[in-house]
Specification:
This protein has about 250 residues and is of the alpha/beta class. It folds into two domains: about 130 residues; about 100 residues, no CATH class. It is about 40% helix and about 20% strand. The strands form three sheets. The chain has a five-stranded mixed beta sheet with strand order 2-1-3-4-8, sandwiched between helices. Strands 5-6-7 form a three-stranded parallel beta sheet. Helix 1 links the parallel strand 1 and strand 2. Helix 6 packs antiparallel against helix 7.
Length: about 250
């Protein structure tokens, strides 16, 4: 088969690694990391990418995203069928199944997960090639700006409000997928966990889902094939997504 992958750049290392061992011919296009923060924009840009694929060129278009806050709900297959993973977000890809993700979430819901792509694409690298913590640097810059504009007491209040979501977290988990500069990733997450006073844990990644996705081994319990002319929508159950004919009532 000839496959075309449209994916978040968080998967750059893993998808490139496993596409090399796929029996199929695979072309890939990666979209910017931050789209998952704006689901409507994610849907718009992913649909535009789908629509730009020339008809009769590929057998399937693979969508390398989870549901992502409904950012991939309502995507429409053109003349080429779509293949999607039954996943709420990218962490399912890295842990190998939605069941394992649910186990982790149930056991320790206050977990911030990291993978190679989360660190490299979201956090970034310094000019010296070392991973840096953008979140902490930005927080310090914002605090200084707020102090100058509003005074120290108000600045502290504003920063506390902006970072309140962090209070729900207590664990930084590195998912080791066996690719990239693993020692650097580990050091970064350990340092960040220490600064945040979080527990650090390293979880073994499971490559089965990514490997099957790119190999064309699409178990319907794990993957959804969207035929031409139909759309995908969320199901609000353990299937996560399902095919919906255009015009069908939601």
């Amino acid at each position: 088969m000839k496959l075309y992958v449209i994916a978040c750049e968080v998967f750059c290392r893993e998808f490139r690694t496993f596409s090399a061992s796929s029996p199929h011919l695979i072309d890939m296009a990666f979209q910017p990391f931050g789209l998952h923060d704006t689901p409507d924009q994610l849907r718009l840009e992913t649909q535009q990418a789908i629509d730009k694929v020339p008809p009769d060129t590929y057998d399937y278009i693979l969508i390398g995203y989870g549901l992502c806050s409904r950012g991939t709900a309502e995507l429409v297959a053109g003349k080429t069928p779509l293949v999607m993973v039954r996943a709420h977000d990218c962490i399912t890809f890295f842990l190998g199944s939605k069941e394992r993700y649910l186990e982790q979430f149930t056991a320790q819901p206050g977990t911030y997960y990291y993978s190679s792509g989360w660190i490299e694409r979201k956090e970034g690298y310094s000019e010296q090639g070392h991973i840096r913590s953008v979140k902490l640097e930005e927080k310090e810059k914002r605090y200084a700006a707020y102090v100058e504009q509003y005074g120290e007491d108000n600045a502290s209040y504003l920063i506390d409000m902006e970072t309140q979501w962090l209070n729900n977290y207590g664990r930084a988990a590195l998912i080791d997928m066996g690719v990239g500069d693993r020692e650097s990733y580990r050091a970064f997450v350990q340092e960040y966990a220490e600064k945040m006073d979080w527990e650090f844990q390293e979880l073994p990644g499971d490559t089965a889902l990514i490997s099957s996705f790119l190999a064309g081994d699409w178990d319907p319990e794990k993957f959804l094939v969207v035929p031409p002319g139909q759309t995908v929508n969320d199901t609000y159950d353990d299937q996560i997504i399902a095919v919906e004919e255009i015009g069908e009532a939601t």
